[in-house]
Design a protein that fits this description.
The protein is built from 2 helices and 3 strands. The chain is α+β, with helices and mostly antiparallel strands. The chain has a 3-stranded antiparallel β-sheet with strand order 1-2-3. The radius of gyration is 11 Å and the shape is globular. The chain starts with a helix and ends with a helix.
Length: 66
């Protein structure tokens, strides 16, 4: 998850703040068009599930970052 977050932030995405009731939900927003990627931060392990990687790739393609 750390590597994905680093990539998203380096490409200009903004990490959205979540409320106390959001649990492990993490969101990243494209500041240009407002497109949002929402994922669950994996725990206790830190490896993303394959579906989360697919969502991240789709988000990067939709926002023109990939």
């Amino acid at each position: 998850m750390e590597e994905l977050e680093h990539l998203l932030l380096k490409t200009g995405c903004i990490k959205k703040k979540q409320g106390k009731t959001s649990g492990s939900k993490v969101s990243y927003m494209d500041p240009v068009d407002g497109t949002t990627l929402s994922l669950h931060d994996p725990h206790p392990q830190k490896e993303l599930k394959p579906y989360a990687i697919d969502l991240a790739i789709e988000f990067l393609k939709e926002t023109g970052r990939l």
